[in-house]
Amino acid sequence: MKKLLTSLIIILSISTVFATDGDQMIGVTALQWARGGAIVASPVDIPSIIYNPAAIGELPFKNLGFDLSLGVLNPPRKITSMVGTTESNSNLYLGMGNGFGARFSDKILIGIAAGGVAGMGVDFPSTTLPDNPGTPFAENTSIVTKKGLLKIVPTIAYKANEKLTIGVSLQIGQQSLALKTPGFTLPQTEAYGFGGAIGVIYHLNNKIQAGLSYISKMDVSEYSFNGTSPSAGEGEYKLDMDSPQSVAFGLALKLNMKLMIETDVKWYNFSDVMDRADLITPSGNVIPLNFGWDDQMVYAIGVNVKPKPGMCIKVGYNYGATPIGSEDVDSNLGSIAVMEHHISIGITKKWNAKCASTLSFTHGFHNEVQSSATPNKIEAEQNIAFFQLSFRL
Fold it and tell me: What is the total count of domains within the chain?
């Protein structure tokens, strides 16, 4: 009985919808999505400091800058089990990314940005999984989860010379999580975390520039839920779930005044934070949640084309192999961390010397992962539309 309960909780515990590269968003603004997330070497806006703190030293503003962006995410996803295929009922989410920057001198710049960098949620009906008469509770109940990570990133950058910019930032996170499964119900609660980042951008010549950034693991405080479970009863449940460290490198080539290409490579250390998480019951028992996520390498390419003055068309491509293998599907039912290929397009219109707007659309192609041990299968695709206003003063 105990093994059956433990297996069920492992399978159902975190059925959260994840975003694109594993559980990380490709971007938080229209400009970032339009470039497929390829912004480490040639940043596109102030919220780019979320991914490379040196970004603010490369942006064209004399005194102040603002970026305001809002988007809609549509991620249809499905679970296939012995009872058939079930679709999630929640398919629309809001995303955002905002930033403010100021120039203190020719060499010192500061900025602060905020954006939803990971998460979303699912709402699967009670017909998702078959009931097991060998357990003391019904498995064929709804699975409703919600997870999100909001980052606030105060940043300072030093422009050493015309070629080199160095930036550092404090990464402040608010992470929310709610879980409702046949195994237990944990109402939404928040946890806070801290980390840091350092980045550089270097101009090799007037056509080529490189960017490198390191974002530390965010140590998120332990969740404390006033939850309930058919087996462990009502009381305080605890769970620790951090945000992974990452390293990114980008190379941008400006072929001429009308064409620029950037390629990025990024590494996410998912195995450190999503290989296993321990759920502690009110009695102090530990239930290991063996998600089994692998580290992920992400490859992105972004292109800027300026067909005429005041207008820029951006296209992007992003690829990252899912961190969930076929042997781990049964421990990740409902997770959307399976999409791998994304294409993006966006258009920026500069209205005057101070104001520009951007509209972007991204499609994450359908992908599925079949369990190597059971009939279970997870699959998802994604559509994302963002709008952005940018001001340079």
Answer: 1
